Amino acid sequence: MLVSEHLLTYDTHRGYFVNDVDLTQMADVYLVRTLLEAEVFKTIRWPSEEELATRFEQLFAEVPDPHRIVFNAHVPPFDSGLDEAPVLDANLTVTQQAGQVKLGPVGSRAVRAAIESHQPIASLHGHVHESAGFRRIGSTMAVNPGSDYGTGSLNGALMTLSSGKLKSHQMVRG
Question: In sequence order, which residues have a C-beta less than 8 Å from that of residue 105 and are 6 or more positions away?
């Protein structure tokens, strides 16, 4: 199909290659992408906050001392400062306020409740690439290294744990 649409060219023994596209074709690609993403977000089945909370409680019940573990949940805790992302309207369009992109918390309440209740030594998160940082939630050090696709850099966090305590933490980029 892509060959017939002149978006790809097939070269025997070498494979397929993307043809140069003009602005009109690129606009069409992004329109289709936007429409597909909107449908995916409407139909995808994510676990509910209640399901996540139940699962977290089951997992923490298996741990002898929750204060000595590192809790790893992809989505960050709600309203932690590690979960600030552009607010989307019903059509999944970024909203603005006073000419600026409006940001709001998009994290998980179940993740936050698990951290507040069990106080692991640290919690590691991702998902919200715009909100890199460290935040204390009680005695737990929560981290979201974020990412920066524009520069091709990979962000991470180094955390030194010793004798059941967090000794140091820092962001790294490479």
Answer: 78, 79, 80, 83, 84
**Three-state secondary structure call for residue 102:** coil
Nearest to 123 by CA among 106, 105, 110, 111: 111
Four-CA torsion 68, 72, 76, 81, nearest 10 degrees: 40
Domains and CATH numbers, the chain: 8-43 (no CATH), 49-173 (3.30.750)
In the predicted structure, residue 148 carries a pLDDT above the cut 90: no
For residues 66 and 154, the model is more confident at 66
Closest to 109 (Cα-Cα) out of 155, 64, 75: 75
pLDDT of residue 110: 97
